[in-house]
Amino acid sequence: MSKNFRIDYQREERIGFQEVVFGASKTIDQLRGIIQDFQKNHKSALVTRLQKKKAEVLTSEFSPSFYDQTSKILLVGEFPKEVVEDEIAILSGGTSDQYLVDEIYYSLLFVGRKASRFHDVGVAGVHRLLENIEELRKYSVLIVVAGFEGALPTVVGGLLPQPIIAVPASVGYGVSKGGKTALKSMLASCANGITVVNIDNGYGAAMAAFRIIHGK
Amino acid sequence: MSKNFRIDYQREERIGFQEVVFGASKTIDQLRGIIQDFQKNHKSALVTRLQKKKAEVLTSEFSPSFYDQTSKILLVGEFPKEVVEDEIAILSGGTSDQYLVDEIYYSLLFVGRKASRFHDVGVAGVHRLLENIEELRKYSVLIVVAGFEGALPTVVGGLLPQPIIAVPASVGYGVSKGGKTALKSMLASCANGITVVNIDNGYGAAMAAFRIIHGK
Amino acid sequence: MSKNFRIDYQREERIGFQEVVFGASKTIDQLRGIIQDFQKNHKSALVTRLQKKKAEVLTSEFSPSFYDQTSKILLVGEFPKEVVEDEIAILSGGTSDQYLVDEIYYSLLFVGRKASRFHDVGVAGVHRLLENIEELRKYSVLIVVAGFEGALPTVVGGLLPQPIIAVPASVGYGVSKGGKTALKSMLASCANGITVVNIDNGYGAAMAAFRIIHGK
Amino acid sequence: MSKNFRIDYQREERIGFQEVVFGASKTIDQLRGIIQDFQKNHKSALVTRLQKKKAEVLTSEFSPSFYDQTSKILLVGEFPKEVVEDEIAILSGGTSDQYLVDEIYYSLLFVGRKASRFHDVGVAGVHRLLENIEELRKYSVLIVVAGFEGALPTVVGGLLPQPIIAVPASVGYGVSKGGKTALKSMLASCANGITVVNIDNGYGAAMAAFRIIHGK
Amino acid sequence: MSKNFRIDYQREERIGFQEVVFGASKTIDQLRGIIQDFQKNHKSALVTRLQKKKAEVLTSEFSPSFYDQTSKILLVGEFPKEVVEDEIAILSGGTSDQYLVDEIYYSLLFVGRKASRFHDVGVAGVHRLLENIEELRKYSVLIVVAGFEGALPTVVGGLLPQPIIAVPASVGYGVSKGGKTALKSMLASCANGITVVNIDNGYGAAMAAFRIIHGK
Amino acid sequence: MSKNFRIDYQREERIGFQEVVFGASKTIDQLRGIIQDFQKNHKSALVTRLQKKKAEVLTSEFSPSFYDQTSKILLVGEFPKEVVEDEIAILSGGTSDQYLVDEIYYSLLFVGRKASRFHDVGVAGVHRLLENIEELRKYSVLIVVAGFEGALPTVVGGLLPQPIIAVPASVGYGVSKGGKTALKSMLASCANGITVVNIDNGYGAAMAAFRIIHGK
Amino acid sequence: MSKNFRIDYQREERIGFQEVVFGASKTIDQLRGIIQDFQKNHKSALVTRLQKKKAEVLTSEFSPSFYDQTSKILLVGEFPKEVVEDEIAILSGGTSDQYLVDEIYYSLLFVGRKASRFHDVGVAGVHRLLENIEELRKYSVLIVVAGFEGALPTVVGGLLPQPIIAVPASVGYGVSKGGKTALKSMLASCANGITVVNIDNGYGAAMAAFRIIHGK
Amino acid sequence: MSKNFRIDYQREERIGFQEVVFGASKTIDQLRGIIQDFQKNHKSALVTRLQKKKAEVLTSEFSPSFYDQTSKILLVGEFPKEVVEDEIAILSGGTSDQYLVDEIYYSLLFVGRKASRFHDVGVAGVHRLLENIEELRKYSVLIVVAGFEGALPTVVGGLLPQPIIAVPASVGYGVSKGGKTALKSMLASCANGITVVNIDNGYGAAMAAFRIIHGK
Q: What is the DSSP letter of B149?
């Protein structure tokens, strides 16, 4: 069968970062073909949301490659040697959100930005956040991850002046199952100027931060 | 036409507080008949969510009577002469929630409890809440009203040990229109031991507080 | 990798009960690290909603430990030696709700309260509830679990004066699948003063009861 | 303009009761034309959910006619002279449901059945229902109306053996606004053998009862 | 552990049919205990929605027993020797609904009614229904099963005068996944006097038919 | 203020029909400016969903103009003198859908197609549809309007081979309020090859028919 | 057991294409019986959405047979020898939609139409679509598949005049999980005259195109 | 009555812009009190979503004041004398979105930024957008407003590298009524790095842009 995809290699020139591959809904055969196409064009391939089993096959076939099981990120190629630090902070309320924090972290690393991670600054013990306020003030962009009721971006947004990208996590159960309550809570925030991405869209949040940083 | 309702006058004996009247969906004729029935039984009648136009007719017919336009509470009869103070605090994030704060306030007054109101302690400026923590520690029950993203009960619940009754307000727009986001956010709170009532159910929150206080 | 969580050990001092661990969305590695942290701080660790397979690994590694398969509660450490009885009653409509009744039971046991369980007092045979009314009158708090249409708290709330915490169960199918109908039914109850927690939030209901009992 | 409707006059022969007119979404001109068509065919016309203003115009034009403001039922023609009693009981939880009780009552009257109405037998004071059980046992069909949490059909269904048609009322607010919680609660009832009609569909409930009675 | 359930053995006397067991959410241990309790009380036990694996264990332990894999019905005991035929017809639109048709069939058999099944009379080829109209006219109650858009009860309801119980099936995908579109379509039917049960509630539909038949 | 819109006058050349104006959410000032712009470009202006009050102002200002109150269509300019007949049939279930039937009718007239209207061929009396089958077979495209349960397109789709465009009407109440049940029912139709447009989107259905006819 | 289905063999004569089999919810036994029935009537059987495991059994039993794993289409029999090309184009935004593109492709092949597939013309790189506009202009019908935000049909609809059938794909996550956002986006399209089928309903889209082509 | 609000005058110092007033749900009395409080603190007061009738009262009482009827923005005080231009562009698809474009415009003007407005660059005629690409490239932040299917941010996001803030408009009907489809479409965008605010939240979008600009 002939090739049934067409990578948008001009994207990086147009918008500053290249096309990546959404791994969850593609078969190994489809992914293999796409990665080979990237290689022919001398590009690294970043695959997001790649299930472990498919990753194991692909990392055994392609080298160099990197797979992080928590974030389900696969890189065929290498992260940039030189990275910029101290521009972006990722805040989260707890261990359950780590998968998303790390998807954001590796997505930014792929475009040459090394973010700082602030774990467990959740609102059920607001002193943990308050203790970090001065440290957080140094960053240019804040990415705030939260599941359940999604209140963290609101509290952060009332305390700090930077651009805030809120990322709802799909953790939770009952009314918060799937992340819709966190999403709506972030959208409805009484703290002004917060923006939001889709549930579990760590890659999107990373690129939103990149768009802000990149243009400066 | 014969009487098509039957007041549950034994309710106070069974559960500690009497039946009240949900005014929003009743006609003036229905309400007049019900209030007269209360009067024949030597009881005050509390009507909740009563639209202004219907209230004007009824307050002109019954005396003594009291109507508060913000909370839409009508009392035909009198509030108790002696009330207990300093047991219950009502917290809210802003002026838009006042209608609900006051429905709770008057509902508690009707059962002999004078609550304290803390306005504008919302999470977009969390210092206003933090300044009141020691004062709030004195109360036996905290009723927390919030609209939009409904984050206030979570922050309160992480700071204070009392029973917390969260009341979602229907204020808001877009995803928070009608109060469903605030409701779900409160139910999904990562602060443990918070309980919730229906959107705009100020009377229910008041009686939930009364059940706690009354049994002590 | 450095530690990516931070337990809120001051929580017990602030609000009367310590932080517990939501087990469902954490890996064994994450849980192991967290439990060790609790042990270093000389605290028992309570893990809720822990899947059986992960529990088997952890109970084989930590001692003393206790795991209840129905409620999915793991305790690393020991329940208090001395407990207070006859304060809290847990009512439910049937065997299908047992998982939730027992999550509430063990969560309360962890904070030194031994609750009484009333099984199968559901509304489809209301005589079973009516026969227990006098017995139920003795308790300070009633926790009422129900799935499907969630009508039990309403009937209880019309008969008894205590604080009532309604807990929707996710059992059911069709319109009641996932527990949303039970949740909404409880929130919309025509019996006044009932409060509600998230679907399947047995731990939250237990702590809501504890907040009431504790403050007396 | 030519006639743009066609009444199904064979319906009564096929299914036992004639076509009626849904008034809410029709203009006065449309209704006038339809009613005249019924008159030409020597039939009474029953119009449901007719707004008061439109009814006033039509009752001034057609005689004999009857309009009940609570139920919004218009009859152009006359109710049957001879009616059968004691077959159908309509139960409801309170005054707020009266509009629906009466829509059912008049719809049944139109097909020659005079139903008995039991007001205020709601579950928040379950003794009022229990006192009526023996009386209710005499009827062949029970139509049970409820808004808010819609628990009444469940309790009735656990106590009595007859066919039960549950009718959700759109009264309520917050999660019960529009009647969807009552509807789902009735569908999810743990009492078996209850059937349900659309929210506020009093006419449909009446015809469902008629189908049962008629075929005996 | 002591018994944590209580069968409602008076139910048959009160409402005409005995309590059955909802199998889907119970463990084998719970089911074994419940079935033994039925046996001690000299009753057959009907278990609905029982997964195949659990059924295999229980049928190997209890005799006589019957399990139908399509409908997931388990009977421990025997169906009545004498049954009444030609009272109830079950109509469905196709093979995909068979699981529900058969749950209704066996549930009715358990209470001594042998229903007739009309397969594949769906509306996409309406002639198949029209050919059966005279035959269908003989039955006292029609139970109509449909998934996808759920249009069958509407067409039947416009052609035949009997009581019609509509049962939405959870088959379908996209907007009809889970059966909610079929459910709502049946509730909104423009054919009057149709009643509806919960999605996949075959047992409930059977008992609704039984309530109608039984009282005659 | 400078002009804040820009009509897409090349649209007709690109896709065969010109841009029209969605009137519901525009002010009279906005509409006046837009219509004048059309006039300067020597084009008729078709405005859809225009409220009566705004139409009265505009028809008094522009001539020639035509406004149909039922369909809320305003034409500033004239319908084509020559029209093609007998290509498109519009079917509907009753008088309540007339507003939509007529929006489709006038939208087609604007592009030179005179459709035939079949009123009251609804499924609650399926014989009315069956009687028209041979007549309907002559048309090239069938547009089928239905509210409530939206079953009509399914029955039509099982009987006739033409392209079928289903249009859900927002008439109805309870679960069918706003037209979502009709929409989903049409999408889930078990009759194959039916396509659907948005609720109340009569203009869209007309243009979908035009795209089919036009290309022949 | 007697046959519990009835194939509608007159469908092809009535509407131009024969009945096919929805495979997802049928057992192997049910499918075997149905396929044998088709064979007895000298017809090929097309089964849609057939899971791989069931397909493996059936392809081993029936010959000739064809199964495509991506689209889950099974054909027992043979595709037509002669097919018409260049009438229908299928557009999609990427590899993740291929399952649906191919279901449409094989469904059309079954009725003698060989469609052309345009992969990866998605809107995130709109130049890929613009480059194909002249080529696309040659086709009589455009079927446009899209998941996530479903914007492709809108852009196509603004550029090309043909009938456009939009097919929402269930790929996506968070708010686009299950395809509902793509579906609603297509229905709400500001490009006029686009019609839509159910999520993942590739077969339906194919037959909608066939209805258009067939009648010419 | 004592003051029941407390303006957060430290907000500007903390996060760079001052508290504004949500006007829709406040009474004239509440607004008057709040505006006077701002005046006492020598601050201008910006009120968003203020209904015309309330605005007329307030503009007659306070001077200088400015009210824009389309955007429903009230300013008591004056816009900054000096403003920065050419940093922020606001794109929209049509006249129906103007209310939101202008709310963004005036909100930015209040913080000293004069944005450029691009009207009618919607995707149904994508050439209008393509013609403006080079001009748009000059701006630092793009705010993209869209209702109906909300596709515009996706197309922009695939063509331009800047930060993109998508704002769903509540215009539309049927599935797009209230703006939820536009919101979800924007969140699910296949163009990466787009962020979203609540439906109709023009002020929030403006402050999100300000957070980006301000920190540079």
A: T
